[in-house]
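Support request from a user on the community tier.

User writes: "When I paste my structure tokens into the form, the page sometimes reloads and wipes my input. The last time it worked, I copied everything first. Here is what I submitted, just in case something in the input itself triggers the reload:"
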């Protein structure tokens, strides 16, 4: 592409982005119609609770820096780059939620990953496995696409420069001599995500007969569990290679634990709403064509799971549907397909979703006169950070299905405000770590504000992206990348001031040789003090910072004491709340408390009937 064409694209893109930002700023929030006040009913409990979470978005922060994740983008698209505490400690929020309810099966509604790297899935997979009980994960748009929007063909990354960038961004702190983290398969496509997930499920004794996915090639999986008490009942999957991998899918049938004396079984049909279609380029995404923002369910998946719904209807069982995308974010063809599938069920309809990071209750009556009750989960990566304990009850006479979705964490009473939600996190994590919220605030406020103020501008980001590769063009990207690595190092050094050495064990880490005889804290300060004058010097300094951050981050995964777990969870939650409070209300993707109240976020249960 010639410089002249790049410049023409630059000005066109600036116009598009400006129009988009103007529209976004002027758009009015219209709350979705929600369920009415609860009528009198005589409910019979059908299930015991399960833990439902979503949108953890584990992010690898130490790979090759990308324009697409430059902090300047975050100045216009909130949470493109999260506070440094999130990539260091954020996965511990999921761990805490699961460990706090050790006997309850779990359901993750997708976006386990962020950049979609193998190291991200390895870190999160370890938490799922350590939970030691049945669970299921539905794919989100970030689980197999770069940042949830770019669908590059990583199987052809020698020829695809964008795929090479994705792969390089997934190389965890990989210096030139770090061969272990410099393979050509560090990025994880949708096919790779499904294959890894199926292999992890097959390791559980109850799912031992689940077929393993092949390394490559088109493959279909159709499996039914012979264990009559298993949580994961059945799987239908299709795995595709090449440019078609984004049309891969995995659908799952889950059997919820029955309440004592229950007369009906309840099943969840977990749909893959991310059959995103052909890949799109960065340019297409900049102009508004992002496969991640809209959910897609193709007819091949719907037909594959139809027998589950038919069987349940025949047996008088209750079927609840679940997918990553919220109902309004599904494309119209997908909603029509799903409504047609739901029509065969002679009971009220419920849909569970994630994706919005907001959380709400909604009642949908379009496309069909029968209402569809939706419970949308807020995320574990952005405020409001929370999860739900989910169970179901039924009134046979009224044909009314009750959904109990207890907002958690909580104390002795239900959570009714953001203040109470944050206080519950403080009580159950910060206090267990032996540190006050005020002490955490004293360092995290400054760190969050510094990360936000270090952003560049959208104009500079576009110029950098569309310009030819040169020292002058690449240096600003590395300057922003250095700032973020410095903030990560600061967050790590602060650990030593907050919790005892025998808890964090940071002085036991084997550091890179270039740290010399100093400890991790001194090594970090030496790297931060270095001045790079050329692009090559900046790259080498960045690699060293990223390598040190990655080394310590790996060590954090080895910490299993209750104090260490509580401390890391506390800091991740606290920073997300601080970042949210620092964000103008018109820029927080409608996550403000007032708007969430309009969509009944703090409501703990709702029911739906047949009309």
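"...and here is what came back when it finally went through:"
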């Amino acid at each position: 592409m010639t410089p002249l064409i790049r410049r023409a694209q630059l000005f066109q893109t600036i116009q598009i982005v400006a129009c988009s930002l103007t529209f976004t700023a002027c758009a009015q929030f219209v709350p979705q119609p929600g369920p009415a006040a609860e009528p009198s009913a005589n409910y019979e409990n059908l299930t015991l609770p399960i833990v439902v979470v979503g949108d953890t978005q584990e992010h690898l922060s130490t790979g090759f820096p990308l324009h697409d994740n430059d902090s300047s983008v975050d100045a216009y698209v909130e949470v493109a780059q999260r506070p440094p505490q999130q990539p260091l400690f954020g996965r511990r929020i999921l761990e805490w939620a699961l460990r706090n309810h050790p006997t309850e099966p779990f359901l993750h509604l997708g976006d386990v990953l962020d950049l979609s790297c193998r190291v991200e899935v390895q870190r999160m997979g370890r938490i799922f496995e350590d939970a030691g009980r049945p669970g299921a994960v539905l794919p989100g748009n970030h689980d197999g696409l770069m940042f949830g929007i770019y669908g590059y063909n990583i199987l052809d990354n020698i020829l695809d420069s964008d795929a090479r960038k994705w792969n390089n961004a997934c190389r965890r702190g990989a210096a030139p001599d770090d061969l272990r983290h410099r393979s050509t398969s560090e990025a994880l496509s949708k096919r790779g995500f499904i294959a890894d997930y199926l292999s992890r499920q097959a390791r559980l004794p109850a799912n031992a007969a689940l077929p393993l996915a092949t390394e490559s090639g088109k493959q279909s999986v159709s499996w039914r569990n012979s264990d009559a008490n298993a949580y994961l009942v059945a799987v239908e999957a299709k795995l595709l290679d090449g440019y078609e991998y984004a049309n891969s899918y995995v659908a799952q049938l889950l059997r919820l634990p029955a309440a004592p004396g229950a007369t009906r079984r309840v099943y969840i049909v977990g749909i893959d709403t991310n059959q995103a279609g052909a890949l799109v380029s960065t340019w297409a995404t900049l102009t508004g064509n992002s496969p991640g923002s809209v959910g897609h369910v193709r007819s091949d998946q719907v037909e594959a799971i139809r027998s589950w719904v038919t069987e349940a209807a025949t047996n008088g069982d209750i079927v609840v549907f679940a997918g990553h995308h919220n109902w309004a974010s599904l494309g119209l063809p997908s909603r029509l397909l799903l409504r047609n599938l739901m029509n065969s069920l002679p009971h009220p309809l419920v849909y569970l979703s994630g994706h919005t990071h907001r959380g709400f209750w909604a009642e949908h009556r379009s496309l069909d006169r029968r209402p569809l009750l939706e419970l949308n989960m807020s995320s574990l990566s952005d405020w409001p950070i929370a999860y739900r304990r989910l169970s179901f009850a039924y009134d046979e006479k009224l044909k009314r299905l009750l959904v109990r979705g207890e907002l958690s964490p909580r104390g002795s009473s239900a959570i009714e405000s953001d203040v109470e939600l944050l206080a519950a996190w403080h009580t159950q994590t910060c206090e267990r770590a032996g540190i006050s919220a005020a002490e955490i605030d004293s360092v995290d406020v400054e760190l969050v504000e510094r990360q936000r103020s270090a952003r560049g501008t959208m104009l500079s980001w576009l110029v950098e992206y569309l310009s030819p590769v040169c020292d002058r063009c690449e240096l600003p990207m590395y300057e922003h990348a250095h700032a973020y690595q410095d903030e990560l190092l600061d967050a790590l050094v602060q650990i030593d001031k907050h919790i005892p050495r025998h808890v964090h064990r940071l002085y036991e880490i084997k550091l890179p040789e270039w740290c010399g005889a100093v400890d991790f804290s001194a090594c970090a300060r030496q790297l931060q003090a270095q001045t790079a004058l050329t692009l090559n010097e900046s790259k080498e300094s960045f690699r060293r910072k990223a390598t040190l951050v990655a080394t310590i981050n790996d060590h954090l995964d080895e910490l299993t004491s209750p104090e260490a777990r509580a401390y890391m969870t506390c800091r991740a939650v606290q920073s997300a709340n601080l970042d949210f409070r620092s964000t103008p209300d018109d820029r927080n993707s409608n996550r403000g408390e007032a708007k969430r109240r309009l969509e009944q976020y703090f409501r703990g249960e709702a029911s739906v009937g047949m009309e």
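Agent notes: The reload is a front-end session timeout and is unrelated to the input. The longest helix spans residues 471-498. Residues 352 and 496 are 41 Å apart (CA to CA). Escalated to web team.
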